[in-house]
User: Fold this.
Amino acid sequence: MEPVHYVKALRGRWFVVAIVLLVGLSAAWFTRTSAPPRPVRETTTYTARAVLLSSQNGRTTGLTSLSTLSELVRLDQVVRRTAENIGHTGDRKALSRRIDVSADQRTGFLTLSSTSRLAAEARRVADGFAETLVTFVDEQQRKTIAEDTESVNQELEKVKTTIDNLNDQLLTATDGRERALRSQLDQKVRERATLESELKQLTSTVTQAGDVSLIQPAVVERDDPLGPALPQGNLVRLLIGGLAGLILGVLLALGLERLDPRIRDSEAAERHFQVPLLARIPRIPRKERRSAPVSVMGASSSATADAFRLLAASILRWPLLTPELHIAHGHAGIRLEESPVADKRGARVLSIDKELTRPKHAFLITSAASGEGKTTVVANLAGAFAEMGKKTVVLSCDLRNPEVHELLGVENETGLVEALESSRTPLLNGTVLDSPLHETNIKVVPSGAPPPNPAELLNSDAMRNVIEEACRHADVVLIDTPPILAAMDVAMMVSEVDAVLVIARSGKTSVKVADGTSEMLNKLGAPFLGVVLNASTDIVKPRSYYRGVLPGRRSSSSALPDETKKRKKSEKSEKSEQSA
Assistant:
């Protein structure tokens, strides 16, 4: 796509960009609580780790269990001694928060970690806590052993005194008393042996090393941040989220545009229908459609009305035609010649000898599918031709779903169906009605009662005679037909008209449908004049020019549809009374 196409795509899908942008901003806003910002490290930090070993390996409770040692690190006595050892004069609580403890129950290792911006400071704190903890545990163990030793010695002295008393009593004891004294003596001797063994064990424990030892002094490591730091300010987050949302929204909009199967601009319409674009009709606002169903007659100063007038003028001037255009009705002296400004399509212009009259202006207007705005284009074209002073006859050939009579303000009691089924001459006698939009120049042949065989009627000789008859009495004949891909009623009619116009609706007609319509008309040998893009969004309208109220362009003979209907009904009732 060219750059201008990208701009058009973004303008047509601005809501996609807006939604994705809003999602990006919302995501950035909600990350304030779900992902708080991590402070950005302005300077390098260092972590020092010292490792201690507990001989109890964490399997028992007591002073040297890992759980107890982890709590002893932050004990007030340990923190105070550490501060004295390393020369810390600040807050002791702050010093306590600078040390982290982790215990490995499987190996019995106790790791003390300290982080600081200075490597020496981190090492001094880690080593200070480690050495203080080892000394503190050793002192507490020795104090406990000393107290236990003293207690055992006291018990041992009591037992020895008791043994000496029992020996003295045995010297003067009788036979009966001697047996009881010897039993007591044996018990005290065994108790003395136990206390002596416990005392020996306590004495040997004092001479051994403590149960907690420093196996690795503090080792310093440099800390590197893990991943990028999150932005700290909410404004920065919103800017980043908005920029990301905008980029994703633009990419999504362009991707949807590439995958969109619908026709949205004039270039796509010409490319897929393979004919020139005759006009781009802007979308008619709902308010305007309600107040004036036919824009040309009801809102003569609008951009929509001027677009229909431009289409009518383009049709009357016979613009560039494709090489496949069939010469209307095989007139001699009518031929297609190479255009001096022929484009890559090999376009030709219609050349007519001066001695011949201009070919009949019978235009068949159809669409690929329903809902393209075909009937609205027919009604507005009739109004535009009427303004130019052209006598226009509108044939309602959409026998399955007739609507054009409603827009032109006539009744649908009798019409084309009755004319085709009759044998009168002329066939249209009594079926041509004056439109209240312009009674002088707009004549309407409504469809009439729905027939059981619309395709058979429209493809009959009578239908060809109807077209000939309408062309003799009008400057322009507009034929409103069913959608060509929805019903084949129009298949045989395309060879009986001077040109075929196809209506496509921007944003609705798909590329596949457009290709199928072009292929169908080429197979039928239709004189495909061009395509009209309805509800176009790529048309530039000078809105300021149409803000003022310009005088209407209606003919003096035009009147409101409702008033004219009432007048016609009264005339019919008077005629019926006179005939009766």
Observations:
- The first helix runs from residue 3 to 12.
